[in-house]
Amino acid sequence: MQATALAFAVLTIAADAAEDLDCFDIGSAPDYNLDDCAFAQKYCTDNVYSRTYYCSSSVGRGFFTAACVGWLGLLFVLLGSTVRIMWHLMQDSLDSPPLLIVNE
User: Fold this and answer.
1) Is residue 13, in this structure, part of any structural domain at all?
2) pTM, to two decimals
3) How far is CA 28 from its chain centroid?
4) What's the CA gap between 31 and 16, in Å, rounded?
5) What is the pLDDT tens value at each position of the chain, 104 positions in all?
6) 69 falls within a domain
7) What is the rounded CA–CA span in Å between residue 37 and residue 50?
8) Domain coverage including residue 68
9) HSE of 95, CA atoms in CB hemisphere, 13 A
10) From the centroid of its chain, how far is CA 79?
11) Claim to verify: residue 50 and residue 62 sit in the same structural domain
């Protein structure tokens, strides 16, 4: 009887502590008898990426990771090429003669 009361008290304390969890605590999901997907659905309500990553299959998880890394790579390549183009345009405008020559 005393062991049952102690187990109930431990579960109650764990349940109360679980209410203070955030999406960043997903590594401790097994401590609260939740798998990663259930934890993400319960505590990552405002984070679509976490729910998509943890609730997809292993193939979907790999595809999602590759898509995110590819998107970031494309973003940085496009930003870098834009900066390079702008840099060359600035250099060309400094070296070129003025477009309008006023005769006095």
Assistant:
1) no
2) 0.44
3) 19
4) 13
5) 455 544 444 444 554 454 677 887 887 777 777 888 888 888 888 888 888 888 887 677 788 889 989 999 999 999 988 888 888 777 766 666 655 666 66
6) yes
7) 9
8) 58-95
9) 6
10) 20
11) no
